[in-house]
Structure formats: structure tokens, C-alpha cells
Design a protein that fits this description.
The complex is a heterodimer. By secondary structure, chain A is an alpha+beta fold. Chain A is 41% helix and 23% strand. The chains are: A alpha+beta, B mainly alpha.
């Protein structure tokens, strides 16, 4: 328990009311008395906080420069600039990301265009000619994509084959001894067929296409009459 | 349980508690708590190592409050600027001497400003101006520049201090404010008020202890 005399001494010490000798004696006592030291510390904080009762006022902006000049310190602007450095770096990073993002988008579009152009460049288009008089009016167009190994056949003005028979599409590839089957083609009542096809074996080079009449369900190798062919 | 969990992650338990107190509208929450003081102490330590950025941060943080104090004591803009300038120069040169075990960082700088202002006041001995200011010293309701202060950090604590001052007896408050802001010695205050020195000292001591009691009750 801090007695009244010590309390008064602490208050006088904090407010600067003690003589130099008394202040030195009190400081010596502080070094020996932990309770008094803690009491004085808390009282100092409490008394100092009275300064907050005064209304805060912003000093003139140039005052800090004056202080720096007096102390021989560097200009504050530089310090302020440095304090904004992280924000400046963040802004640069954001701009760089934006530019890279736009560039990436442009590159993707370019690649897509090139791919598209590449696909079209490799597409093979063939028009088949009638091999018998009965199919003189028939029209057959084939679009073949060798990369994807698939194609599209469009037939028109073709009569349906006799019962028990089907049209079958063949791809002539020099790499194979016999034509490669591309499946059976079913013709509708209007004599039109539009079929997506895939060969039963990989085709290295489509040298030509042919349509024959085979037994229903198709054959593994052409046995019937070839009615349309072309390259 | 939540606080314990978060505290394990490294956030001081006291700061979490203060956040909850703030959220539930506890107006006695102290804005400048231990964590706040620790930040200020770190700034002073950096200043002691010659860190100019820390010095600038410190100035931005404290200058409105310190200048307000100086202005109240000097009642003159030029003199208040001189006091702040001398105080900041002292802080730059003597930061290594700051002892956080003896007082908070704010207490250290506030008492530096007060002492610098008192030195000036006593040197000039402007008795008449002091007399006028003494009469009008109790401006607890004054809000000269509260809203324009750069740093609102101390706003709540200021309200707390003013509230506490308003709760102590008028004679104690008068003696305390004269002692803190006017630069008068206790003897001069006694003469000014026509009151025995012992009475003035007792009023100041009781006023300080009452303030302490009010602060502790709030915390």
C-alpha cells in the first residue's frame, strides 16, 4: 500500500515539482520499491493522458519539413514516396497482369484461327461419277478429313437398291490391298442420303472413293457392282 | 473458445476481447490499449535506430494531439509550433533513452511537450496572458479541430479523459488543469487562487487519484 506521503511525492515528481535532489532521491526509491515504481508508472500514464483533453489541431504541413531541416534529415517527400512504393508495385503488377491477360487472349484467338485454317487446308473433297447408266443423274459429294479420319457423304437422285441389298461406301487407299469399308449407306424415299462415316481401318491416303451395291448389311470387301466412283 | 482458438493463431487475446467489446458497443473500450502502445514503443525504438520513416509515421500519428496540447498551453500558434518542433527534435535525439517500463510511449511524448511548453512559458512569464487563459482554461466541451485531425486514433480516449475530468470536483479540476497546462508551479497556483500551498497540493493529488480511479473503473 502506497501511503499518502509517497503518493504526493509521486505526483510532485511526475509534474516536475520536486527539486533536483528530491527527484534523485525519489528515483532511487523507485529502483528499490517495485510497488511504488508500478504505481508511479500508472500515475504517469494517467496524468499524461490529461493532454488529450486539449483539442487536437493539425499543425501546418510545412512544419515537419522545418523539423527535418533542423535535424539535418532527408526531405519527407522521399519518405512519403517510399511509403507508397508497395502500392506503386502492386499497381504495376496489376497492369502487367492485364497486359499479359489480353495478350494471352489474343494468342488463343490466333491459335484457334490457325487451327481452323489448318483443318480447312487439309480437307479433301471428292465428287463421285456414275459408273453405270442407271446412276447417270445421281450426285455424290464426299468431304474427307484425314486428320480426324472421318467424312461426310451426301447422295441425291439415287434410287433405293433392290430388297436384300444395301449401298456401301469404300475408300481406296494404296496402303491397303483391298478398299477399306466406310459403312453401309441407307437412302431415303426421296433418293437422298446424308451420312457421316468412319473407315473400319485407318486410312493413310484416300486416293479415291466408291459406292457399290452389296448384300444387306454390307461386305468386308467389294463384291457387288460399283455404281459411283471418283477422287 | 473462439478467442482461445484465435489466440493460438497468434492474435493477442486482449485485442480479441477488445474487438468483442467494441462490437457489443462497450463505450469504455480503450482505443489505445497495450497492443497500441506496443506499436508506439516499436516506433520509438526504430527512431532510436535512426529510422526516418518511423519518425515520419510517429509525427503523423501524434502531431495533432501534441500540437493541440502545445497550443492550449501556449495560446499562440507560433509558440506552439516551436514547442512541437523542439519536442520532435528531442524525441529524435533522445529516443534511445525512452524506457517503456517506466511509462507508455504516449506518456513519454506528452510529458516532453508539456515540459518544453512549461520551459517557454516560465521563460516568458506572460502573467497577464496566463491570467486570461486560466480563466478560460476549462474548455472541456471545446472541439476546436476534432473532425479535421489527421489521426482519429485518440478520439475515443479523449472523450474518456474529458468525461473523467468532468466527474472530479471543480476545485480539484481547476488545480489539476492549472498544474498541467499553465506552467505555474504549485506555489504560483496557490498564490493565484489565494489558497494555502498544502491545500493546492492535496487537491492535485486527490484529483489525480480520482482520475486514476475513474480510468480503472472503466477498464
Amino acid at each position: 500500500m502506497i501511503d499518502e506521503t509517497k503518493q504526493q511525492a509521486a505526483v510532485d515528481y511526475i509534474l516536475g515539482e520536486l527539486s533536483s535532489a528530491d527527484a534523485a532521491a525519489f528515483e532511487k526509491e523507485l529502483g528499490q520499491d517495485e510497488e511504488l515504481r508500478q504505481f508511479t508508472k500508472e500515475l504517469t500514464d494517467d496524468i499524461a493522458s490529461m493532454g488529450l483533453a486539449a483539442s487536437p489541431i493539425n499543425p501546418r504541413p510545412e512544419l515537419f519539413s522545418r523539423i527535418q531541416k533542423t535535424l539535418g534529415l532527408s526531405n519527407r517527400t522521399k519518405i512519403t514516396t517510399l511509403s507508397f512504393l508497395p502500392w506503386a508495385l502492386a499497381a504495376c503488377l496489376a497492369i502487367a497482369c492485364l497486359i499479359l491477360g489480353l495478350n494471352n487472349l489474343r494468342t488463343r484467338n490466333l491459335v484457334a484461327q490457325l487451327r481452323q485454317r489448318d483443318v480447312l487446308a487439309h480437307l479433301q473433297i471428292a465428287s463421285l461419277q456414275a459408273q453405270v447408266d442407271a446412276y447417270a443423274r445421281a450426285s455424290a459429294i464426299i468431304v474427307w478429313n484425314p486428320q480426324r479420319q472421318q467424312g461426310l457423304l451426301r447422295l441425291s437422285s439415287v434410287t433405293a437398291p433392290e430388297a436384300g441389298h444395301d449401298y456401301q461406301l469404300w475408300i481406296i487407299d494404296p496402303a491397303h490391298k483391298t478398299p477399306v469399308s466406310a459403312g453401309v449407306v441407307t437412302v431415303g424415299k426421296e433418293g437422298v442420303a446424308s451420312v457421316e462415316f468412319r473407315p473400319v481401318q485407318p486410312v493413310t491416303s484416300a486416293a479415291g472413293f466408291a459406292v457399290s451395291i452389296e448384300k444387306a448389311g454390307g461386305s468386308s470387301a467389294p463384291e457387288g457392282q460399283i455404281v459411283l466412283a471418283g477422287r | 473458445m473462439i478467442t482461445a482458438h484465435v489466440a493460438k493463431k497468434g492474435i493477442p487475446r486482449k485485442r480479441i476481447k477488445n474487438c468483442f467489446r467494441f462490437l457489443i458497443g462497450d463505450l469504455t473500450y480503450k482505443p489505445v490499449d497495450e497492443a497500441e502502445d506496443q506499436y508506439n514503443v516499436d516506433l520509438v525504438r526504430r527512431i532510436a535506430q535512426g529510422d526516418q520513416v518511423a519518425f515520419a509515421l510517429f509525427y503523423d500519428r501524434f502531431s495533432p494531439v501534441l500540437y493541440g496540447m502545445a497550443f492550449r498551453m501556449m495560446n499562440n500558434r507560433g509558440d506552439a509550433e516551436d514547442v512541437l518542433q523542439e519536442s520532435m527534435a528531442y524525441i529524435w535525439r533522445k529516443a534511445h533513452a525512452f524506457d517503456s517500463s517506466r511509462r507508455s510511449a504516449f506518456a513519454w511524448v506528452a510529458m516532453i511537450v508539456r515540459n518544453k511548453a512549461i520551459d517557454k512559458l516560465r521563460a516568458r512569464r506572460r502573467g497577464e496572458r496566463l491570467q486570461e487563459r486560466v480563466k478560460g482554461s476549462s474548455d472541456l466541451s471545446s472541439d476546436r479541430d476534432d473532425t479535421s485531425a489527421l489521426e482519429p486514433l485518440f478520439r475515443e480516449q479523449r472523450g474518456r479523459v474529458r468525461s473523467a475530468l468532468s466527474q472530479i470536483s471543480p476545485d480539484q479540476r481547476e488545480a489539476l488543469e492549472l498544474s498541467y497546462f499553465s506552467g505555474l508551479t504549485h506555489e504560483e497556483i496557490a498564490a493565484q487562487l489565494g489558497t494555502p500551498l498544502g491545500t493546492v497540493k492535496a487537491r492535485i493529488r486527490r484529483g489525480v487519484l480520482r482520475l486514476r480511479q475513474l480510468f480503472q473503473r472503466e477498464v
